[in-house]
Amino acid sequence: MDASRTDAKKDQFVGNVKENVGSTFGNESLEAKGNAQNSSGNTQETMANIQGYVQGAADQVAGAVKGAYNSLMGNTGAEAGDKVQQHKGEAQRNWNS
Q: What single string gives the DSSP state of each residue in 12-52?
């Protein structure tokens, strides 16, 4: 499953609108559907955050391991690229925490 923050926010917004309209006009069915859609959006957002965190952690570890290897081999050009990957992964992981 490829969770999307955009879809999650859309479902949260639309679900919230349905829930409020249903509540305002006493339409319990619409209110329940809105609540379900809002909850679905919350779940999608959580999944997107987890997915981003895991990808960031993987990039951070891969960059660190490759960087250490290239440092031992004296390949400073590749080592610099690996540092970039490591920092990118760290930033992505922090963004999704």
A: HHHHHHHHHHHHHTT-HHHHHHHHHHHHHHHHHHHHHHHHH
Structure confidence by residue, pLDDT tens digits, 35-90: 999 999 999 999 998 998 898 888 888 888 888 888 888 888 887 787 888 888 88
Q: CA 52 to CA 48: how far, in whole Å?
A: 6
Quickly tell me which residue has 């999307």 as its tokens. Answer: 4
pTM beyond 0.85 = no
* Contact (Cβ atoms closer than 8 angstroms) between residue 89 and residue 59: yes
For the record, the structure tokens of 50 come out as 């987890």
Q: How far apart are CA 85 and CA 63, in angstroms?
A: 5
